[in-house]
């Protein structure tokens, strides 16, 4: 095959990795990265970079498993670990995804508040529009429009360069691991990991690889798709942290609402900063709000053998449509709860995601290391060591977080005693 | 069969992982799986897998009884009593539980939540027989230990005579029953099943169909699925199937592929078939040429009605429609048309020249789709011939190709399914 043909093939196959990557920098993602930069300056860049590398590994495993087996992750969990484990995994996924859907709706609410629209008006309307569009129209076209909106996040890159951060310091802190023993810092670490690598992202990338009909032969192109997508996730996240650190952290401005994160765009857009931020947030939140409830309903129905698919009618696939509808309605309803801080909803759900990620990762790695399933595409030993180390660290972090939340003093003392 | 007695019914999940004790009460192991043999009679359990390490089985004849506490053997256990699994046996848990199967009765893909077994006595021997698989929500809750929540819901079973597992147990075990039942399915239903499968299941499933069935099913699919199935197949098989498909369908599929891939497949096809397809591929997507098929019945003008009927017998299997017969001269110039009815009721000696209608409605391959639809609709035709400037017949466009244009989305398959369903009901559960 000549170069041109290869490129043509790549563009035909491209997609799953890119969409997941951009949906990864959703409302919760922006909020978490901005909070990390505003509160802890450049010190969390290290965590973010590491989790981006791990994102690449996790996405690669999922995409490879999808291409080789032709099946979704929940399907594989059911067939290889039985119904109880599948039930467990699906419960985890449902909780995590309900949380994430809620955070997408807070993103939508926030962006509309920036445009001056009340959330009690915008959220129900957008929830209905999303619900309706997915069922009645061609989703693929919508996806392109939303991806385009996400491009506005590149403004963080420009802004991050314009604020002229102290690059040597940024560089040094980027490669220095920092771990503060406070519960708040731990929370932020788990949040950053949880927003970068999400349970739903793993399910989603695998099932869209399967949906595209990508086979093991075409897999090498998909690998590039996944890697390039991951690069952009990390690239944008890096600049969000840098620009918020240089503007907000440097001037001691705490982030109280997601709108404050728009302040970091001031150097670029001046008074239009919040508008620019609003569009980007809307695009990312909508993209994820489209993808999430749908992929959750797919995964759950696939695991338990209920009829599923948007082309089916409600009578043919009642569980599928109910689940899909309930996720959207609940997600929107939680956001409308009076007196709830939207910003905290976004942050909290990322932490929940981070804490729920390990079980899903364990299933993924176990499946990808089974030769009977993966054949010649099975995980290499080296790969497995990285994957298991990472999973272990994440489990430890989640446990630490749990401990430090339940017994804050104990944790602080423990950290002090080991010299942190 | 007269003295067959059912001693009890139970679910595989109720026995799974339960302890096995021998006659002296010693614990032998746990029930990990059951081996079954599925020969011409009903599938019956032949042995119990009791330990993780070895693959040896406790023969079923050693089993005395069981209850919710586990299984009891009728002798003292000794590893020498065990036997290895036979070639024609398979583990039901590993093979069926949590897996997807085809429900041949409902022609859909379902997931097995549990397995229903029966303990029967016949001629002094006790057997455990596989009765059905449970695909219902109640079975799912039973596995999760929460069946009591749904105790008012009915179980949903698929009788073991109606299941086709997507994973073959051993290649030797392609049951003739399965093949026979697959043959009963309508190609449109098979197409639906294939759409729901992953690419590995597709490959295995297509292998289990005879080639004509595979082609019929493929013809029923949506274009994007056709393309997917063809690209996922190995080239040899794909080119064989494309050869046998109606050339217009084959051309549609090939034009969706990259030029390298379609060239490769064309080169593997037999040259005649490839030539037809190539010819069709040269027309733009929105022209009449892209809709037409070259498989029409063209009869020489000098034939008598009797000769024509004989010729028709030879040509009919290949043709897309035989209701319209096109009359041509040596240069393939379209001279006239007659219907099958007119041919049959004509006296045997009349020549086609005297039988045919000479005023023929025809279109050019460069007309657009709307013109085609209008023409077919206006004259109430089942098919319309496509001719070039010199009136040479190139192919025909049938009414179903036009219908597909007017209803581009799913309906085609669904219309078929409901028709079949009605026909089945009318004839008491049997199609055709």
TrEMBL record, chain A:
* InterPro entries the record matches: NRAMP_fam
Q: Which UniProt keywords apply?
A: Membrane, Signal, Transmembrane, Transmembrane helix, Transport
Query: What molecular function does GO assign, one term?
Result: manganese ion transmembrane transporter activity
Q: What is its main location?
A: membrane
- What GO CC annotations are associated with the protein? plasma membrane
Q: What is its membrane topology?
A: Multi-pass membrane protein
Spell out the Pfam families in the cross-references: Nramp
Give the domain of life. Answer: Bacteria
Q: Name one GO biological process term.
A: iron ion transmembrane transport
Subcellular location(s) of the protein: Membrane
* Stretches that traverse the bilayer: 39-58, 81-100, 112-133, 145-163, 183-205, 226-250, 275-300, 321-345, 351-369, 381-407
Signal sequence span per UniProt?
1-23
UniProt keyword Membrane present: yes
Protein name per its UniProtKB record: NRAMP (Natural resistance-associated macrophage protein) metal ion transporters
From TrEMBL, chain B:
Tell me the domain of life. Bacteria
Name the PANTHER family for this protein: MAGNESIUM TRANSPORTER MGTE
Enumerate the UniProt keywords alphabetically. Answer: CBS domain
Q: Which residues form the signal peptide?
A: none
Record-given protein name:
Mg2+ transporter (MgtE)
Q: Which GO terms describe its cellular component?
A: membrane
Q: What is any Pfam family matched here? A: CBS
Question: CBS domain: which residues?
Answer: 292-355, 356-415
Annotated GO MF terms: magnesium ion transmembrane transporter activity
